């Protein structure tokens, strides 16, 4: 297996390797501790056209997993996140800036019927061959933060229980187009 940090990505659409990727988040509970969770169903693609890079992603909100099924059911209910009103999270990049193995990814995040610009700090993990599969794999880590209130996500009486800031943690491995 060979791995390189040279960011020479082949033109075309790179597809997600879902077995080696994750979409996670962290939110404060009662202002004193953190609850971590993930979304288990998502799709993302990275399209390369020369120096132009576009990233798109869609996350199924119903795939929320915080490790507690009762809590997940409550968070997905109309009391909190309201999965019927907000079935997906969608992202489309508007700007990619690179500086060696690091950079920023800015784009439009849509949750329900609200779209806001967000920026993620990105670290390029490298390119590597994965035995038994065609094409190289490219790994990226992206972190950022959103405010749920910016997307109209308010919890009424439960507002004081959960923080407004949500930290986003993405680890994504893409497979090269063949």
From TrEMBL:
Organism: Actinomadura rayongensis
SUPFAM superfamilies linked to this entry: YceI-like (SSF101874)
Name this polypeptide is given: Lipid/polyisoprenoid-binding YceI-like domain-containing protein
Occurrences of domain Lipid/polyisoprenoid-binding YceI-like (ranges): 13-175
Pfam families: YceI
Family designation: Belongs to the UPF0312 family.
